[in-house]
Amino acid sequence: MGIVGVNLFDRQFGKNQSFNSAGNVACALLIAGVSHLFGNRAIFITAAVLTIPTVLAIRAIKGSDIDYDLARGGAKLVGGKEVPARSSAMQTLLGDRILLVFLACAFLFHFANAAMLPQLGEMLSHGARATAAPFMSACIIVTQVVIMCSAPAIGRFANLHGRKPLLLLGFGVLPMRAVLYTLTHNSGGLIAIQLLDGVANAIFGVVSILVVADRTRATGRFNLVQGSLATAVGLGAALSTTFGGKLIQHFSYRISFLSLGAIATIAFVLLWTAIPETLPDRHESGTDISSPTTSQEFPA
Fold this sequence. Notes:
300 residues, 12 helices, two-stranded antiparallel ribbon, 2 strands, globular, mainly alpha, disordered C terminus
């Protein structure tokens, strides 16, 4: 945001998520090849070597290219000029009901989502242990490829048409995925179902940050709330595997998948009924659309 400005943040963040997933896919394929040729120890050497181009890329970013106040959501327009803004941390986190409900939705989304793929791999490994690892790899790559291909379009759509339609789609496919997992054990069919996982994670990964940016504009607390979102996501994911595992232990995989799907449905209903559209009307009087100077912006 500090480099491209608020107006281009939506589309640029979608591009960044696409490159992120492309890197995940490339790294997975590279490590698979290296481990096959040189053994598992070479995986760690490869990971260490990959930090070198990462550091070089970071060093190529000039500090002067970044508006640091805008990067933390801390600029607003007063009399046609940008001025620094900083709101109370407690007021930003606890005083915004919409933001709190959205964090609850994020928690429920990952509570429902995180355990599904590991449970699926565990279930399949009981009958075909030799094919479980390649199957899991294929599922992960399918998800990342979907994110890589769709994230830029998601950023553009969210910029033009709003956040909520995309969020409803992303949250809505999650209970469908849970039900579909109970209907087939065919490997091809299950890999195809992973397309839904890619759609859900692509939308959440891009749009959730855009919602945070919308709700923290001109507060100076963008990064703080991003951390809160990461906490909600992490808690949901951590509890998901425990919850799903207990249901498998006491009941069955089918019950676990359906229960996770029920939680996903609760998250969808909460999002639908309690979260309004957060994209500001850029033609509305008084709306803050702060962005760095024109020289810092580039086409998205």
